[in-house]
Amino acid sequence: MLANELGRRGIETVLVDEKPGTAFNPQANATQARTMEHFRRLGFADEVRSLGLPADYPTDIAYFTRFCKHEIGRFNLPSAREAKDKVNAMAGSWSTAELPHRVSQKFVEAVLRKQAERLPGISVNYGWRMNAFRQFDTHVEVDVERVEDGLRQTLTASYMVGADGPRSKTREALGLIYTGETGVIRDFMGGRMYAIYARCSELYRVSPHPPAWMNVCFNTERRAFMAAVDGKGEFAFHTQLKPHEVETDLTEDDARRMFQAAAGAPVEVEILSRGSWTAGHSLVSNHFRSGRVFLGGDAVHLFTPAGGLGYNTAIEDAVNLAWKLAAVIKGKAGAALLDSYEAERQPIAKRNTNYAKTFADSLGLFKPVPEIEEDSPEGVCAREQAGLYFMAHGRAEFNIPGVTFGGRYDGPGHRLGRHSAAARQGERVYPQRLPRRASASPVAGGWQIAV
Fold it and tell me: Which fold has domain 2-184+281-363+400-450?
């Protein structure tokens, strides 16, 4: 996203990423309305909205004892086609040019890459890693290495941005640290989790319930949540590991049994990928910048993935930082404008990680009673009570225009001269596409930005 924003403003940028390409695993699954507005401004919102689930696939959030057993609650949300139709008639808190879209990050990343590679002055280089960097008064030197054969080069850039994830080498080299809360243990969404990217088209035939985008499994044996990836049988499945389950010992058959336990049926499951991760983080870096080096995304804020806020917060980091870098590089603003990036984005990161923690607490601290799956009056009563709870939870987690649109920049950080006016002007002035420029060379030489 940063490369797209900078390229549109005519800023030569080189991006290196040690992965061979964009994501294979589903990762984030919710694109919030503000992010869709940014995609609209850049001209590819319709392309993003056409990806992922079929146009008429419901984006409901549904709660079950098991996916093929009792449904205990459902929060209805529009399909992609309905969202496009509804946007012209909606008012109030959801009065926006773009409603949220449920699409896997793997599809969004591919669009962002394609769009960035079309821009003059943007060099996108997968299969390259950053090994080290050095700051000087006027520039940054960045040592990069090609993963395939160890070929090394040194880039020279005006600025560098480390968007290198929660284990950020850039943050570590700068001596910056996460602050906040971590290691939270909950009955669900706290502690050791296991992610399974699975293909199971049979689930649609076996389940007696209408399809949903997000499916939550609530019982005493195997709690899980599962996002539909393509609406045809691919799912991003996440479950809480039990104390006796050691992630390094788990086999593909174990992963298959986990999925089947949550389904409540012996469905055929193809495991596409699997791995462990840890829930229970609400972390924000103590600083977002040191000299000519900036941080963004998971490198400065780490969420438990509730509410779909992590990826969307990262998108807005890129939008905020890009126009400021462009303004300073072009001489339209003084270097002090760059101080506003941390002043503005750090409070938003703290607010959003706190919201995500609240949603994770609401889901993970609510425990199922033993009779939740019984076909008895007690079981019916337990499911009714759980359904009421989850309906309230669903509204709180997914109907969030205040979180989506409510970020604002004020307070002590805006004692930077006329920075508030500059920010407002920047948001209006810089989004337009600039005249095309000559294509940049591959990794080498001098750049304005290294990402």
Answer: FAD/NAD(P)-binding domain (3.50.50)
